[in-house]
Amino acid sequence: MKLLVALLFMTVSAAAQGDQRDGNANPYTTPEDIAAGGRIFRSHCLGCHGRDGTGGRGPNLTRLDLHSGGTDQDLVTTISNGISGTEMPFFFFNGKQLWQLVAFVQSLRHSSPPLRVKGNPEAGAALFHGKGGCLKCHRVNGEGGRLGPDLTEVGARRSPDHLTVSLLDPGRYVSPLDRKVFAITQDGKRFSGIRLNEDTYSLQLLDSNEKLIAIPKEELKEYRLDKGSSMPSYKGLLSPGELDDLVAYLYSLRGKENRQ
Fold first, then answer.
1. pLDDT tens digits, residue range 165-183?
2. Using CA atoms, how far apart are residues 110 and 62, in angstroms rounded to an integer?
3. Which residues contact 199 (CB under 8 A, 6 or more apart)?
4. What's the predicted TM-score (pTM) here?
5. Best CA proximity match to 20, nearest among 66, 65, 73
6. Among 229, 125, 119, residue whose Cα is nearest residue 168
7. Residue 160 near residue 115 (C-beta atoms within 8 A)
8. CB-based contacts of 156, cutoff 8 Å, min separation 6
């Protein structure tokens, strides 16, 4: 264990030296700091990113190409400000705690072996555009439907295991950002769809025909969120190999650049 901590210290120190050239060096990178950062991680981050940081509802933090940037200062910004449009909230830590957490995440990134995905991304892309019928509801780089979440960057936000579960058991976890809304107006009209926007005075939905509907809140009689999923399960529809291929493709989606 002492040897492992020493190796992590050497790795994080080397990364910090690189940041020193930018004037953003982490002042807390000792083995004790990394251990303290690990305790903070397990208290606040484990639920989304997994005990070993390889991801779940949140992205794999062991990747060298983190979508929001991998320098110490990038991580400070992400943790302190959160990421708009995602489930990543902001956290307030005192300066030392924040830097210790950054040191621990950097230790994961520079010591963990690359995460290997079993499937073939090219074969998975063919399934996504063909047999899987995914473009009916989902968009990638501006192509496809809008009834489901945009998947352009899903590989930066979800782990392979979480993607697999989402395909086989879509209702197990539905992001609050993606829940459907059911509404009934005072005169008995019924609406359902994806919530696009909501403010103090109105509610905007996208219905099953991708039609935008705006409802003044003063006209609402009933309004509720559906915690379930309208996505069908692919269990039995795809072979194990096809499932691996589709997951590999989804995990490769990192934005318009399609970074691997």
1. 999 999 888 877 777 888 9
2. 7
3. none
4. 0.68
5. 73
6. 229
7. yes
8. 59, 66, 67, 253, 254, 255
Beta strands 190-198 and 220-226 are unpaired
Instruction: Sort strands 180-185 and 190-198 into parallel, antiparallel or unpaired.
Output: antiparallel
Half-sphere exposure of 59 (CA within 13 A, CB side): 27
For residues 164 and 247, is the Cβ–Cβ distance under 8 A? yes
Which domains are seen in the chain, by residue range? 2-111 (1.10.760.10), 121-173+231-252 (1.10.760.10), 180-226 (2.30.30.100)
Which tens digits make up the pLDDT trace of 238-255? Answer: 999 999 999 999 999 987
Q: What letters, b where the CB count within 10 A reaches 16 and e where it falls short, cover 23-39? A: eebbebbebebbebbbe
